[in-house]
Amino acid sequence: MQASWEIFCSVVDNYGDAGVTWRLARQLAAEHGLRVRLWIDDPAALVRLCPEVDASASRQWQAGVEICRWPADWQPVEPADVVIEAFACQLPEAHVVAMANCGRRVLWLNLEYLSAEDWVGGCHGLPSLQPEGLQKFFFFPGFAENTGGLLREHGLIERRRAFQADAAARAGFLQSLGVQARPGERLVSLFAYENAALPGWLDALVQHTSPTLLLVPEGRILGDLQRWLDMPALAVGAQAQRGALRIQVLPFVRQDDYDRLLWCCDFNVVRGEDSFLRAQWAGRPLLWQIYPQAEGAHWDKLEAFLALYLEGLSPSAADALQALWRAWNAGEEMGAAWTALQDEWPELCAHAERWCARQAARPDLAAALVQFYTDWL
């Protein structure tokens, strides 16, 4: 019988934590044939990612995964063979006791946030002694060989490349969202937190010599966009034109459709962790808004990723991309950085595809987790 796995997720960043754990749970079930249970304290966060989810159900099955509401009043259940606490969420104390007393070995993993920082490799896979005599192992996703790899489904890159090579498929998908791209438009997606840098960037797009179609899925950035447009409200389907910039608000779509949106675009602005990684698999230049942390701790993570990602770029291209990322995350004026980036566009496009291929050549996160369990047995 295949091992049973359970993943605990406490929703912090709207869809980010839920998005990562839902992707991982689906992949473990679909590609590795595992029995997977996802505990989530806010099932409503999954509804937009998977509309079939019933937010009111305490227990349900979707895509081969058992989804359970993680109740504040925990009721005892039999622990799985592998227990993953995602992003340092605190397991119910009674469940930890059950893990220690169930009469078999249980692998306890703390799945950490994605980071490119140097120290990650040294901490990946390390055990930590816990109460009840259990060991908890730290599992770090990452971009280097000594980490747990990145979340990537089997055949993802091949599907993406085939889709991008099929103009009819791209046009058909965009039409399903109500989008009709015009000849010569550069397609840009924008999924972001609130950002004081937005007006300056939009002003630069308005004045650019070539047209841009900015596709904005529902999200937190809509308030800033609405103020810049000076419009009373922005709903799905809303469109506006300012100079060379055309803007269209899109619905929040399920994960597979968001992937296709990224694949359709020439440039993707993303946030947090899940969309950040999916934009890398799109093989297109990107701009990342990292989740802000207290006392500016997120800047070390941002700079660590840039140090890796910029390898292989010419000095001028590296400087341009770095300036754009720093300005965006600092909420500073974006116009000059965006203008400077245009001269480096062909190199940045080729580099994005090379980076994707390099990362895709490594074992993916789900496979690495399964291998870790096999080695632990």
From TrEMBL:
Classification via InterPro entries: EarP
Keywords for this protein: Glycosyltransferase, Transferase
Catalytic activity: dTDP-beta-L-rhamnose + L-arginyl-[protein] = N(omega)-(alpha-L-rhamnosyl)-L-arginyl-[protein] + dTDP + H(+)
Signal peptide: none
Domain of life: Bacteria
Family: Belongs to the glycosyltransferase 104 family.
NCBIfam families, A to Z: efp_Arg_rhamno (TIGR03837)
Protein name (record): Protein-arginine rhamnosyltransferase
Source organism of the structure: Azotobacter chroococcum
